[in-house]
């Protein structure tokens, strides 16, 4: 699973790197080292506003936590979807077929169960590059005119780099796979090993009230 991630790179630099139109100046995003469910995040898509229509690759601001059009507003909207079953679950299958997106991240957090309690670990690419996380998105509107575009990250079985910390991990795409994923190609494979580095970080990340670059700093461990 993935419950938090960091995105501190300027969105305009990410847009240039992936060949996408950046966020509008009217929808600014504040860099964060503690992005959590319900937060609004820049995501990459090639869908137009009508969901199934094609559009040039661009960034849109979407809320983390999927809410399909047919669903009621609730506090239990899924932030993750298992890649193995995303094509068959009613909550996810239409978005998987028609509404793909990719979420850029500097890295993500997972929690390990230990005798000292749950310990957060920060994961990032060994090469220091952007993590391109496969996701799906939905559009929801209420009768009174409220409108929300939201997404869920896809997860896969953890590879050797991550398995010691947690048995699941985000679907991690390579940069040259982003276009193929957005076009509908099935890329639900576990990432190859020796791609991801990790280290223990402060429990400060447990609270969404805390933010800042210190959250991804390595801290000493007792084992």
Helix and strand content put the structural class at: mainly beta
The arrangement of helices and strands along the chain is EHEEEEHEEEEEEEHE
Low-confidence stretches: none
The assigned CATH architecture is Alpha-Beta Complex
Tally of alpha and pi helices? 3
Q: Report the β-strand fraction as a percent range.
A: 35-45%
Tell how many strands the DSSP assignment holds: 13
Q: What is the C-level CATH assignment?
A: Alpha Beta
- Name the shape in a single word: globular
> End-to-end span in angstroms?
24 Å
CATH fold node name: hypothetical protein yedk fold
Number of domains: 1
Question: Largest sheet, if any?
Answer: 8 strands, mixed
Percent of residues in helices comes to under 10%
List the helices and strands and how they pair.
Layout: E1 4-7, H1 11-18, E2 32-35, E3 40-47, E4 54-64, E5 80-82, H2 93-98, E6 100-105, E7 107-114, E8 117-125, E9 131-141, E10 147-157, E11 168-170, E12 172-173, H3 178-182, E13 196-200
Parallel strand pairs: 4-10, 5-10
Antiparallel strand pairs: 1-2, 1-7, 3-4, 6-9, 7-8, 8-13, 9-10, 9-12, 10-11
